[in-house]
Amino acid sequence: SQKIEQNSEALNIQEGKTATLTCNYTNYSPAYLQWYRQDPGRGPVFLLLIRENEKEKRKERLKVTFDTTLKQSLFHITASQPADSATYLCARGYTGGFKTIFGAGTRLFVKA
Amino acid sequence: NAGVMQNPRHLVRRRGQEARLRCSPMKGHSHVYWYRQLPEEGLKFMVYLQKENIIDESGMPKERFSAEFPKEGPSILRIQQVVRGDSAAYFCASSPPGLSHSGANVLTFGAGSRLTVL
After folding, report:
1. Are B84 and B48 in contact (CB under 8 A)?
2. Is the pLDDT of residue B62 over 60?
3. According to DSSP H, which parts of A24-92 are helical?
């Protein structure tokens, strides 16, 4: 079956460090991957999208990579801040389609 | 410019009752999606609708659950004869009628409706 997997263990890092979250997919090749942020009690908020022919995408302190050989996307937050603490969700879609499937998410805790 | 509006935010039902969750998509959006999130779990796709049409309901339980998106008014997710296992957060998302220039579909989510079944 087609799967999208994220590390279910929480990630704890010190303020100022770079947080790196992993998203792996199996048995298919997504046309693009998306990353969303979800705070407790709230709906997810879209952050970044990267297509299969893009190696890297940046937005302020955020960076996403897409490695089709490893079947993996990495999500980086540089100079992390306590306000970055949240659950980050990876999602996949396919060109021309509307259905979006999410990974289980990884909780990030940034300590001051 | 209001975002995706969901109501009620919190709903308490006793076993066997019906739950109705409503979602008004973002202005200009014609696609609606429903997801369910159990505590400490990810978002599970339930159903995708356009106006008056169910496009994909592959994630919807076969019994007791139904969804609609009428020509006028909000989309409604209806759960009949609720059981304790239905307790969850139900999120609605919407997207514009077309895909972006990159062929991607970005979702805008509501704040969710939290259903508690006693």
Report:
1. no
2. yes
3. none
Q: Which phi-psi region, left, alpha or beta, contains residue B73 (left: φ > 0; alpha: ψ -120 to 50)?
A: left
Residue B118 near chain A (CB below 8 Å)? no
Provide the β-strand partners of residue B67: B77
Residues of A in contact with B55 (CB under 8 A): 98
Closest C-alpha among A44, A43, A23 to residue A33: A23
Q: Round to whole Å and give the CA distance between A32 and A48.
A: 10
CA distance A75 to B4: 26
Cis peptide before B96 (omega within 30 of 0): no
Rounded to whole angstroms, the Cα distance separating B76 from B113 reads 12
Burial of A29 (0-12, 13-18, 19+ CB in 10 A): exposed
Q: Are B110 and B22 in contact (CB under 8 A)?
A: no
Q: Mind listing the pLDDT tens digit for each residue in A20-48?
A: 999 998 877 777 899 999 999 999 999 99
Chain A contact present for B104, CB below 8 A = yes
Q: Which residue has the tokens 């190696």?
A: A55
